[in-house]
Structure formats: structure tokens, C-alpha cells
Design brief:
Keywords: DNA-binding, Transcription, Transcription regulation. By secondary structure, the chain is α/β, with parallel strands linked by helices. The protein has 14 helices and ten strands. The protein has two domains: 207 residues, Class I glutamine amidotransferase (GATase) domain (Rossmann fold); 100 residues, Orthogonal Bundle (Arc Repressor Mutant, subunit A), CATH 1.10.10. Helix content is 41%, strand content 10%. A six-stranded mixed β-sheet has the order 2-1-5-6-10-9, sandwiched between helices. Strands 3-4 form a two-stranded antiparallel ribbon. Strands 7-8 form a two-stranded parallel sheet.
Length: 345
């Protein structure tokens, strides 16, 4: 099996923020360092800056000077776009000059196209994601979908493999995708050994839904705020829309309309989200059995908890706890804050 050449694009028109630098280091770590004890054929990696060879950007004392410009994408087997300037994402600013054309040309020559995090905006702008399923960091998927309606954006996964075009969610999800490429190119054993060497899972269960904050934005609506706070404090009890509407002194229809306008979701989905947030907190900070977590969060039985976790978060409660557990809550009286191991009063 041959690994081939990898051209990594640095869209460095405005400098390299720390998060982008982290994502840039991922393909360096995976593809840029030969592993002769794992495979006789490793990747030939080159760094290509949009400003041209010899140019670079410095931020936080870090300076990059690349030997290639965008012409380095020519002939590459794989092209990786790690990120694009924030203005391209947040404000719809144009991509750096020549980048979209260079990406289209590389794809036409047969290169496998890969984006990490906001690099998906560059592939989308070049038209390479039209008619395809793709992802990006969950904070930016709504913008990606709105700006490029021909792209089927999935915000629930860590990465999408669409054959010759692959996209990943943000930050560490880029590592998941890069290891997936090694698995495709050099086999599972090499990818697993490389992951072990990097002290990371060879394959993480679930998708980026487990990292999304399920709580809703706070509302300034004085008529809803108190009842929503009351509901959060009584999630262990059976709650209905009629109960909440009555407490807010509204008809169920008015309550539904007001909550949807304030939060963008339905009352039942809002309750489910809050119960999942409570369950996540309990799984992270206590060693309570899943049966008790289900009771305290209002999700009921352990089976019901597992059902909603798998559907909404993408992993089982046990897998979530393995990933995020910190330490059990104190067994004695807590010095500050509420005791989450007991139902709210």
C-alpha cells in the first residue's frame, strides 16, 4: 500500500490564531513524521501557503515560512485545508486569492480533498461539497448550511467520508479524520499503532453531538424566566406542558408560542434537553448508577436514559462517562453549591 503525497494549505492572510495552529499541527503530526517501524511507505507532506513560497504569518511568537505556494497542490494525492480566516466564516469575506481555483484544479487532477473544521468553507466555496454530505465544527455548521444550501450539512458527526472528499468537525475531530485516512491508506493495524503512539483512541465512539451544549439561551422574557428556572429545579418530577403553562399563568397554546419564540424549540424538546444536561452533569461528576441518573434527571429508567442518550448525544451513558468523568461528588455535606446526588427541593 502507498501513502502518497499530502499538500497542507495554510490560509494565512491574517495570521494563525492558536486554535488554527493546533489544527495545523494535526496533519504535521500524522502525515509529516515518517514511521518506518509501522510502514515502509509513509506520506510525503508539503506545506503550501496562500501567500506564496517563503511567505508566512506570525502570531503569539510563532512564524511559519513555507517552501511552497498554492502551486504545491499540483500533483498531490491528498489536499488538506485546515482552516480559513475567521472573516471568511463570520462575515462571508472572500477566500484568499487563488485558493478556490487551486482547490478545484487539484480535485480535477484526482486529488483527495480533505477539510478540518472551517476548512469546509473553502471546499464549499470551490463547489466541491455541492450535492454531498459534509460537516464542520458545530459552532459553524448553521452558517455553512445557510451559505451553501446545496451541501447537506451534518452537525452530529466527527467526520464525513464521502470517498474523494472528506470533512471533519473542529479541533480534535481533525485528528479522528486524519487517523481514518491512515486506516484507509495503510490499514487498521498501522492506524491503531499510530493512535497508541499518540496516546489517543484509534476510533472514538459517537459524534460531535456529545460536545454540543444542549442548554438553550437564556431568555429576557420575564414571563418565562421564573417558570423555566422552576422547571430546571424540578427535573426529577413528572412535568407536562400544561403544568408549566399553568405555573406561567398562560394557556398551553400561548406558552408553547412564547417558549418557541424565546428559545427556538418546543416545550417538550426544551424539557428533554434540560434533562439530558442534568444527566450529563451527573455522569461527569458522580459515580451514581445509570438507574439513579435516570431518576434524578427525570428520564426515568436506565433503558430510557440510554435510548435518549444514543439518539440525542450519539453515545451511551457509559461511553459518555468514560470520556468526561472527573471525580465523584463528595459523600459528606458539600461546602458550597447544590448536592446533585439528591432531588431538587
Amino acid at each position: 500500500m502507498s501513502a502518497g503525497s499530502v499538500a497542507v494549505v495554510v490560509a494565512d492572510e491574517i495570521g494563525i490564531p492558536s486554535w488554527d495552529l493546533y489544527e495545523l499541527s494535526i496533519p504535521f503530526t500524522v502525515f509529516g513524521k515518517p514511521q518506518p517501524d509501522l510502514s515502509d511507505h509513509w506520506y510525503d507532506m508539503r506545506l503550501c501557503a496562500t501567500k506564496g513560497p517563503g511567505q508566512g504569518a506570525a502570531e503569539f511568537g510563532v512564524s511559519l515560512r513555507t517552501p511552497y505556494g498554492l502551486e504545491g497542490l499540483t500533483g498531490a494525492d491528498t489536499v488538506v485545508v485546515t482552516s480559513v480566516p475567521d472573516a471568511c466564516v463570520e462575515e462571508g469575506a472572500p477566500l484568499p486569492d487563488g485558493l478556490a481555483d487551486a482547490l478545484r484544479a487539484a480535485h480535477a487532477e484526482g486529488a483527495r480533498m480533505v477539510s478540518l473544521c472551517t476548512g469546509a468553507f473553502a471546499l464549499a466555496e470551490a463547489g466541491l461539497l455541492d450535492g454531498r454530505r459534509a460537516t464542520a465544527h458545530w459552532m459553524h455548521t448553521a452558517q455553512l448550511a445557510a451559505r451553501h444550501p446545496d451541501v447537506t450539512v451534518d452537525d452530529s458527526v466527527l467526520y464525513v467520508d464521502d470517498g474523494d472528499v472528506l470533512t471533519s468537525a473542529g479541533l480534535t475531530a481533525g485528528l479522528d479524520l486524519c487517523l481514518h485516512l491512515v486506516r484507509r491508506d495503510l490499514g487498521a493495524h498501522v492506524a491503531n499503532q499510530l493512535a497508541r503512539r499518540m496516546v489517543v483512541p484509534a476510533h472514538r465512539p459517537g459524534g460531535q453531538a456529545q460536545f454540543i451544549d444542549l442548554s438553550v439561551p437564556e431568555t429576557d422574557d420575564g414571563g418565562l424566566g421564573p417558570v423555566l428556572e422552576w422547571a430546571r429545579a424540578h427535573l426529577d418530577r413528572p412535568l407536562t406542558v400544561d403544568d408549566l403553562a399553568r405555573r406561567a399563568s398562560m394557556s398551553p397554546r400561548t406558552f408553547y408560542r412564547r417558549l418557541h419564540a424565546a428559545t427556538g424549540t418546543t416545550p417538550l424538546q426544551w424539557l428533554l434537553n434540560q434533562r439530558l444536561v442534568r444527566a450529563q452533569s451527573l455522569l461527569e461528576t458522580t459515580d451514581l448508577p445509570v438507574e439513579r441518573v435516570g431518576e434524578l434527571s427525570g428520564l426515568g429508567t436506565a433503558n430510557n436514559l440510554r435510548h435518549h442518550f444514543l439518539k440525542q448525544v450519539g453515545v451511551s451513558p457509559a461511553d459518555y462517562r468514560r470520556s468526561f468523568f472527573t471525580h465523584p461528588a463528595p459523600t459528606g455535606p458539600a461546602p458550597t453549591g447544590p448536592d446533585l446526588t439528591r432531588p431538587a427541593a
